[in-house]
Amino acid sequence: MASFLFHLGRYFILMWRAFSRPEKLSIYRRRLLDEMVSLGLDSLGIIMVISVFMGAVITIQTGANIDSAFIPTYTIGFATRQSTILEFSPTIMALILAGKIGSNIASEIGLMRVTEQIDALEIMGVNSSAYLILPKITAAVLISPFLVIISMFVSIGGGYLIAMFTDVVSVANYEFGLQLDFRMYHVVYALSKSAVFAFIFTSVPSYQGYYASGGALEVGKASTRGVVQSSIIILAVNYLITQIFLI
Amino acid sequence: MIEVKGLSKAFGEKEVLKQISADFEAGVTSLVIGASGSGKSTLARCLVGLIEPDEGEVLYDGRDFVHMTAKERKTVRKEIGFLFQGSALFDYFTVRENVRFPLDILTDLSSKEKEMRVDSVLERVELTEAHALYPSELSGGMKKRVGIARAISPKPRYLFCDEPNSGLDPQTSIIIDALIQEITKENEMTTLVITHDMNSVIEIGEYIMFIHYGEKWWEGTNQEIMETDNKEILDFVNASGMMTRKRM
Ligand SMILES: Nc1ncnc2c1ncn2[C@@H]1O[C@H](COP(=O)(O)OP(=O)(O)OP(=O)(O)O)[C@@H](O)[C@H]1O
Ligand SMILES: [Mg+2]
């Protein structure tokens, strides 16, 4: 428990330092652009591949579980849309990105720690936490909603393919279900949620990397801890957000 | 100049630095020598505040570094160049970008002036050809030289070099030593070089401090170190095989 409080306190102090005013804006602007490009472009492929399969599977599963004549098949389209927008795109994508981006961040920053690159920054009078962490968090929080929007379209497209090429549901019914009772609020909710998740899967691994010590072995462990902890926190926070905003 | 007064540091039970006092003069290349694990790197890290000492004072031209606020420290740090034992080059930058980085951070030079400064510094460490390479593409000795170039590019008032010539061949070693001494004179810098290398001790040791298990054991010049009968120093010097050659 004492150790939990220690880490929590140190995490918040690190975040506070990371969000303090940067000393030379031009340098941060360049870092932010670099990070946005690398986070965004590098994740696009995996997001699309996973989303198309996800949408396809949701459609098939929902179809398989509705075998009552009283439930119309357009429910399949409706369910695919709802679960994609509310949970699968924001939450599953956050978990995927926690694995991909989170481990990357923790090992990158951890390696900089153990090879004294962070000390080198500090000696030059650079606020190393702001310089290293702030651009990553900002980039992820800004880019992540766009990735989630793309994921939503691709996932629903995956279901569409099922409608087109199998007889789980007709295209017309699938489309009808997609449009049924659509609420913009749900999309806004999902995108806000994804921004919160982005903060988690960048800041937690950053923390783990920043306080890594020792050698390559410890950096590897820090990276694993970063991914596991951000995934758990994302799921817990998801539960809270759902309780508060949807029920 | 840097004055050190009664500096002590322990990691847990282990006392790594014990009441170290010394004056490092401006315009002089001061050497800190001692066996592996004697506390040399820890001393350098305490002096620049990467490690907080438990006790003692460090004065940068009269400015009490240990008891400063973080903001005041930043002002002093802008005048410090530091070569790390492992070079600590930024992996994602090329050689040129590494050397330019402190200029971007610390100076208000125009882009053209910065590029010219980078070119001249790279020339001095003989790395003009390698300017577009990444650290992973460099040999250990090249990394050291880039580290030196990065440390001196903003023309610091205080220069710390943690083993600038470990891993260098004897010829490059001499060039690097000469370079450090030259810029120290040129810019009236206060320079502290940590080294194992007896060649350096003899070539550039105007002031030498010998650390033994965290204590200042001996201090003097390169003349004096050749004549001392201090047992620990003799052991250290003999182990390097230098004595025989020089005394011939
Ligand atoms: N952060 C730390 N925590 C605990 N012990 C440390 C730490 N840093 C250094 N030490 C210990 O302090 C002692 C001195 O280390 P230091 O790195 O200063 O030696 P050194 O004289 O630079 O040696 P070398 O010539 O091998 O570089 C060592 O015994 C080391 O184990
Ligand atoms: Mg050392």
How would you characterize the overall build of this protein?
The complex is a heterodimer of chains A (247) and B (248). Chain A has 247 residues and is mostly helical. Chain A has one domain (26-245). Chain A has helices spanning 2-18, 25-65, 74-114, 117-123, 128-165, 171-179, 184-210, 216-246. In chain A, helix 3 crosses helix 6 and helix 7 packs antiparallel against helix 8 (216-246). The radius of gyration of chain A is 21 Å and the shape is elongated. The model of chain A has no long low-confidence stretch (mean pLDDT 92). Chain B has two domains: 1-79 and 157-222, Rossmann fold (3-Layer(aba) Sandwich), CATH 3.40.50.300; 89-155, no CATH class. Chain B contains ten helices and ten strands. In chain B, the strands form two sheets. In chain B, strands 6-7-8-3-9-10 form a six-stranded mixed beta sheet, sandwiched between helices. The longest helix of chain B has 17 residues, at 170-186. Chain B starts with a strand and ends with a helix. Chain A binds chain B through residues 23-24, 26-27, 111-112, 115-117, 119-120, 122-126, and chain B through 45, 48, 50, 74, 77-78, 80, 82, 84-86, 88-91, 101-102, 104-106. Bound molecules: adenosine-5'-triphosphate and magnesium ion. Residues 40-41, 85, 162 of chain B line the site of magnesium ion.
Outline of the structure:
The complex is a heterodimer of chains A (247) and B (248). With 247 residues, chain A is mainly alpha-helical. Helices cover 85% and strands 0% of the residues of chain A.
Can you count the beta strands of chain B?
10
Mean pLDDT of chain A: 92
Report, as a whole number of angstroms, the end-to-end distance of chain B. Answer: 36 Å
Most extensive interface, chain pair and sizes: A-B, 16 and 20 residues
Strands side by side in the biggest sheet of chain B: 6-7-8-3-9-10
Main beta sheet of chain A, described? none
Kindly, what is the distance between the CA atoms of the first and last residues of chain A, rounded to a whole number of angstroms?
Answer: 32 Å
Report the order of strands and helices of chain B: EEEHEEHEHHHEHEHEEHHH
Strand content of chain B: 25-35%
- The poorly predicted ranges of chain A are none
